[in-house]
UniProtKB/TrEMBL annotation:
This protein's UniProt keywords: ATP-binding, Coiled coil, Hydrolase, Kinase, Magnesium, Manganese, Metal-binding, Nucleotide-binding, Phosphoprotein, Protein phosphatase, Transferase
Highest taxon of the lineage: Bacteria
Protein name: protein-serine/threonine phosphatase
SMART domains, alphabetized: GAF, PP2C_SIG
Organism: Streptomyces lasalocidi
Entry-linked InterPro entries: Bact_Sigma-Reg (IPR052016), GAF (IPR003018), GAF-like_dom_sf (IPR029016), HATPase_C_sf (IPR036890), HATPase_dom (IPR003594), PPM-type-like_dom_sf (IPR036457), PPM-type_phosphatase-like_dom (IPR001932)
Signal peptide: none
Role played: Primarily acts as an independent SigF regulator that is sensitive to the osmosensory signal, mediating the cross talk of PknD with the SigF regulon. Possesses both phosphatase and kinase activities. The kinase domain functions as a classic anti-sigma factor-like kinase to phosphorylate the anti-anti-sigma factor domain at the canonical regulatory site, and the phosphatase domain antagonizes this activity.
Region (Disordered): 110-135, 168-191
Reactions catalysed according to its record: O-phospho-L-seryl-[protein] + H2O = L-seryl-[protein] + phosphate
Occurrences of domain PPM-type phosphatase (ranges): 498-707
Extent of Low complexity compositional bias: 171-191
Length: 837
């Protein structure tokens, strides 16, 4: 052991030269070699240069946090004494064939240099520097091919870099006196796992007879390929040691060439790595793109599936809740067309007419219905037969190539002007073995309908079949209840001295007629009974109970019983024929000679009275319980119905709705009666539109009574019937003109003739039966009514500039004081009212 070399104190890495061994790469390898060679400039000898190398590695290699990466650094120099003598090293031994080894250390206890007799140390296993002594390190280096055997003048090989297990981490080995350890006994760099506490060693020949080795004890993770990156560093260390010992030009040139070659090999190796990484990245990018495309495709498929599921749920819910046949088939056709992806679709379905005969109707989806108006209904041709007979589904990629296509006259295919069809799909709608109709879909391109489309449409067809059965059952039940209701409701008789009208409307969203009724019963001595009532419930049962109560009411009225007595008797009857059935009723008797009204109310909404001065009040002073609670005494109240006064009796469906409190409806009714009034038919229609508007939740029954002020102002009326031909229009104009002149209202003739033109022309266009024209004068109003068999209501529709239709109704709206439509059995009444003032 010898004291540290004086040069060790200042042999450190240049300022700022720090290299992170955890991220050592090509740039670090080149830069570290340059700084390493600069660090030994001016060392003066190989020993001083070796100490500076030790100090450089100790201070220049850091971890990712900037702390020293090497716990210990050792540099070994060796010279063979064979044939060299004092010429090469004055301190070297002259024993032939022996190695003289100097060790230079940079550790936590400071730098020091030591000289060891290599063969003796190996034989005795004498540690030079504590637990990890030089002898153990030299054995490792010899086994790795970085250090020559004793007395071996041959070079140990090229400059090399290895990664070894530290000897301190292995059990101590017993010295072998017979022989030195062989290379096979040393740990292999290839077999040693990378990790903390490893020896990074490199070395080899400096020149003939002279070797060096550097061991770096690193206590942190080292990056892959660290040995490759340290090869140029190892060659730089050799060149630095060689330069400090006055080498020949040939030796220096050879060392520089070796350094350049190692750097070029590293660059080539790193380039190959980068190229491989680029290829991997390209492959990964391609896989990612394929994955992204697949994800987008799957996402699109999932969105489509979600939309299909949502649409199927929507269709199922809508069809299950829909009871209107026209709305049902249109909704089903629209949904099936969307699910099939067809250019257009149609649903042909069978309905029963009033006479029980079956006929075919259809709806269109995807295109305007007018595209098909000019074509006849399809027949059981070879293509359509499978569907109309319910034999199965027909799906064709090109129906024009189907052998069943084109055999039937007169078209032998599709009629001229028909939308082009190549792809064809037809699905029958069958319920309990009965063909209710069929879906038909077309597309101008071939091969558009798949098995999946067929399954989806077949599912909609199944739901449609159930919905059609429900709708038809509902329609039959509703029609039966309505027919019973119509048969039971009276036709109001004409009574001198009063003008009356009535209305009955079934609920807009109900399964059938209810138990609402109104009645007018002439009595002796100029009296007349006015009745309105409501039996709880819907359908045939409610209508039947209502009929029995109405019959009993008429019988008690004919006995001349007072209103309170009639209700008392009816309460007993209701308790007998329908126990537990809530029934309300308002019963009044009008004495026309005395203008006196006697009224009793059993749980019903109070009638509303408008007096001759226009004041409005509800007759709600005395109201008893509903009928059906046994024999009860019902209180009576009296009111005056003087000439010019009006009385309205009604059921709760007129003023009560789910979305509107009944108090609000009653308030609105009071405002309507307090406002302008005129001809009673028009008044009724106007109030119904304002209060119900076709959205009423319950049946509505109304009885409206008006006492004219004097006989001179009683209603005058003229009625004519005309066939539904164009000649009816001028005939009706002539009737209106002559009648108005006869009434002294010639100034209204032009306006009313214009109104007549439009209303009668619409009736002629849409009706198939004779129409009736009625002109009435009442007080200060003239009313025109046109009755026809069509259920199509006239509406205000804004026409496009190129259209000529839908303009006449704007003329009616501009001329008439009020106008509207009243639905009746077998058709409708369109009315218009004009003031005579």
């Amino acid at each position: 052991m010898v004291p540290p070399s004086p040069s060790a104190a200042h042999s450190t890495a240049p300022r700022g030269a720090r290299f992170d061994v955890s991220a050592f790469d090509l740039a670090e390898a080149a830069t570290a070699g340059t700084h390493l060679r600069q660090a030994v400039v001016g060392a003066g000898s190989a020993h001083a240069a070796a100490q500076r190398l030790a100090d450089f590695f100790r201070t220049g290699l850091v971890d990712r946090h900037g702390h020293r990466a090497c716990a210990e650094v050792r540099v070994f120099l060796a010279r063979s004494t064979a044939g060299l003598g004092d010429r090469t090293d004055p301190d070297a031994s002259t024993d032939g064939g022996r190695l003289v080894v100097r060790e230079f250390t940079a550790g936590d206890d400071g730098s020091r240099a030591a000289e060891v007799d290599a063969p003796a140390a190996v034989r005795r296993s004498e540690p030079v520097a504590g637990p990890s002594g030089s002898s153990s390190l030299l054995r490792l280096l010899r086994g790795a091919g970085l250090w020559p055997a004793d007395g071996d003048d041959a070079l140990p090989g090229e400059i090399d870099v290895v990664l070894l297990d530290h000897p301190a981490g292995k059990p101590a080995e017993q010295p072998d006196q017979a022989s030195a350890p062989s290379a096979a006994s040393a740990p292999s760099a290839a077999s040693a796992p990378e990790g903390a506490g490893r020896l990074l060693a490199f070395g080899g020949p400096v020149r003939a007879g002279q070797w060096f080795a550097v061991t770096l004890l690193v206590d942190q993770e080292l990056p892959p390929g660290i040995t490759e990156f340290f090869r140029p560093v190892a060659h730089s260390a050799r060149l630095a040691l060689l330069s400090a010992d006055e080498p020949s030009a040939e030796a220096r040139l050879e060392a520089s060439g070796a350094l350049t070659a190692s750097m070029e090999a590293l660059v080539a190796w790193r380039a190959a790595q980068l190229q491989s990484a680029v290829e991997d990245l390209r492959s990964t990018s391609a896989r990612l793109r394929r994955s992204e495309d697949e994800l987008r495709r799957r996402e699109s498929e999932l969105r489509e599936e979600a939309a299909v599921v949502e649409l199927l749920q929507e269709v199922g819910s809508a069809l299950a809740a829909e009871l209107d046949l026209d709305a049902l088939v249109q909704h089903a056709s629209d949904a099936a067309t969307r699910l099939s992806g067809a250019a257009f679709g149609a649903f042909f379905y069978n309905v029963l007419g009033d006479t029980g005969e079956s006929y075919l109707l259809y709806v269109i989806s995807g295109v305007d219905r007018s595209e098909f108006d000019k074509f006849p209904m399809p027949r059981n041709t070879q293509v359509f037969e499978y569907t109309f007979r319910g034999l199965g589904v027909v799906r064709s990629d090109d129906i024009t190539a189907d052998p069943r296509y084109g055999h039937n006259a007169p078209h032998h295919g599709m009629p001229a002007g028909h939308l082009p069809v190549r792809s064809y799909l037809a699905v029958p709608v069958i319920s309990h073995g009965t063909v209710l109709g069929g879906f038909f879909f077309g597309h101008p391109e071939p091969g558009r309908f798949t098995e999946r489309h067929e399954r989806l449409v077949t599912g909609v067809a199944s739901q449609t079949a159930v919905a059609l059965q429900n709708a038809q059952t509902y329609r039959r039940e509703r029609e039966a209840a309505m027919e019973l209701q119509r048969r039971l409701l009276p036709r109001l008789p004409k009574v001198d001295g009063i003008v009356t009208t009535s209305r009955y409307l079934p609920a807009a969203r109900s399964r059938g007629a209810g138990g609402d009724w109104m009645d007018l019963i002439p009595l002796r001595d100029g009296e007349v009974a006015l009745v309105v009532g409501d039996v709880m419930g819907k359908g045939v049962r409610a209508a039947a109970i209502m009929g029995q109560i109405r019959t009993a009411c008429r019988a008690y009225a004919q006995l001349g019983l007072a209103p309170s007595e009639v209700l008392e008797q009816l309460s007993v009857i209701v308790d007998d024929i329908a126990p537990g059935c809530i029934t309300t009723c308002a019963y009044a008797v009008l004495d026309r000679h005395r203008a006196r009204l006697r009224l009793a109310v059993a749980g019903h909404l109070p009638p509303v009275l408008r007096d001759e001065q226009g004041g409005v009040r509800f007759l709600d002073e005395e109201i008893g319980p509903p009928l059906g609670v046994g024999r009860r005494a019902y209180p009576e109240q009296e009111a005056q119905l003087a000439p010019g006064a009006r009385l309205l009796l009604y059921t709760d469906g007129l003023v009560e709705r789910r979305s509107r409190p009944i108090d609000e409806g009653l308030h609105q009714l009071r405002k309507l009666l307090a406002g302008p009034v005129g001809e009673i038919e028009a008044d009724c229609d106007s109030w119904l539109d304002a209060l119900a508007g076709g959205q009423h939740d319950d049946d509505i029954a109304m009885l409206y009574v008006y006492r004219p002020e004097d006989s001179a102002r009683r209603t005058l009326a003229v009625t004519r019937e005309y066939p539904p031909v164009s000649g009816a229009v001028p005939d009706a104009r002539d009737l209106v003109s002559r009648t108005l002149r006869a009434w002294g209202l010639a100034h209204l003739a032009n306006d009313l003739m214009l109104v007549t033109d439009e209303i009668v022309a619409n009736a002629v266009r849409h009706a198939r039966t004779p129409l009736r024209v009625e002109l009435r004068r009442s007080a200060d109003r003239v009313v025109l009514e046109v009755t026809d068999s069509s259920t199509r209501r006239p509406r205000l529709i804004v026409s496009r500039p190129e259209e000529f239709g839908h303009r006449g109704i704007f003329l009616v709206d501009a001329i008439a004081t009020r106008w509207g439509t009243r639905m009746i059995d077998g058709g409708k009444v369109v009315w218009a009212e004009v003031s005579t003032s």
